[in-house]
Design a protein that fits this description.
Blueprint lengths: L1 H39 L3 H6 L5 E2 L2 E2 L16 H8 L17 E3 L7 E7 L3 H19 L4 E7 L2 H5 L3 H15 L1 H13 L12 H8 L8 H8 L4 H12 L8 E4 L2 E3 L11 H13 L2
Parallel strand pairs: 4-5
Antiparallel strand pairs: 1-2, 3-5, 4-6, 6-7
């Protein structure tokens, strides 16, 4: 019986992996069709790239097709149901005007960089690795403030709950301070699991990662995470992303103007090129 159970478990895992690969294949085919339509009407690959739907290693990170109506459309049904049974608790340190937006930097900064991300997004991780430090430095020196808009659609595309779980733990970090949210945000990307696994769908693992942020893990923080206090808020943040009209992650907008932070090969531009792009965009205003 034990041998049969082990075999069944292995078969189930293989089927889950096959299902994830098929979802990725379908998403890739849909993106290629979209690109072909864009070329036919003369938009070209450069314009297609500006929607921040980037294919790397055969993985298309996009919510196209999942949310054509601009609403969740049934996305994250299990997470929404779980969150729906709890009282909404909004973390401290959210935007003063929108409780689903996380502001890093001087709230009174003249310019605003809106960043749209999903913690499971491998292209977000690639951008973070290349330009994350520079993106933060420009907020730290007052060039702009960052407004984070977090998504969880990859839970649907790839299966699992890791995006939503990571976001609710990030909510507990945000309740402590914006600085701790940002530090935990960076730790998540530095330890992002493979896109076809659900490594963030384990609260114990997320708590271990939170331990990498000095002073974050306290008894109160741990209890909030285990009790999923900020799960309803995470669901609300996800719904706000779905309603934003943004079609993929990562997407960056400076004062409402979308930035193309990837080159023609789909790689992030260099840190110096990013700085020059920001300076040029700010100077043109």
């Amino acid at each position: 019986m034990s041998t049969n159970n082990t075999r069944n478990t292995r078969n189930a895992r293989k089927q889950d992996q096959a299902d994830a690969r098929e979802r990725l294949r379908t998403a890739r085919a849909a993106e290629e069709q979209r690109r072909q339509r864009a070329r036919r009407v003369g938009l070209g690959a450069a314009v297609a790239a500006t929607v921040a739907v980037i294919a790397v290693g055969g993985v298309v990170v996009s919510n196209l097709g999942n949310n054509s109506s601009g609403t969740s459309g049934g996305s994250h049904s299990s997470g929404d149901q779980a969150a729906g049974s709890q009282k909404l608790v909004v973390p401290a340190h959210v935007s003063a005007t929108d409780s689903t937006v996380i502001v890093y930097g001087d709230p009174k900064a003249k310019h605003t960089l809106d960043v749209y991300e999903d913690f499971r997004c491998p292209i977000c991780d690639k951008l973070e690795g290349a330009d994350g430090r520079t993106i933060q430095e420009l907020a730290d020196n007052g060039t702009y403030k960052i407004q984070y808009h977090m998504a969880t659609f990859l839970d649907d595309n790839l299966g699992g709950t890791g995006s939503m779980d990571a976001l609710q733990v990030a909510g507990a970090a945000l309740n402590e301070s914006t600085a701790k949210f940002k530090a935990f945000h960076d730790v998540l990307y530095a330890n992002q699991p493979e896109e076809t696994t659900d490594g963030f769908g384990d609260l114990g693992h997320l708590l271990d990662l939170a331990g990498k942020v000095p002073g974050l893990v306290t008894p109160e923080f741990t209890k909030a995470v285990k009790d999923r206090v900020y799960a309803p808020w995470a669901a609300k943040v996800s719904q706000a992303f779905n309603a934003s009209g943004v079609q993929g992650t990562p997407t960056l907008k400076l004062d409402g103007q979308q930035l193309n932070v990837f080159d023609s090969s789909g790689n992030p531009i260099s840190a110096s090129a990013y700085t020059a792009l920001i300076q040029k965009t700010v100077g043109a205003k």
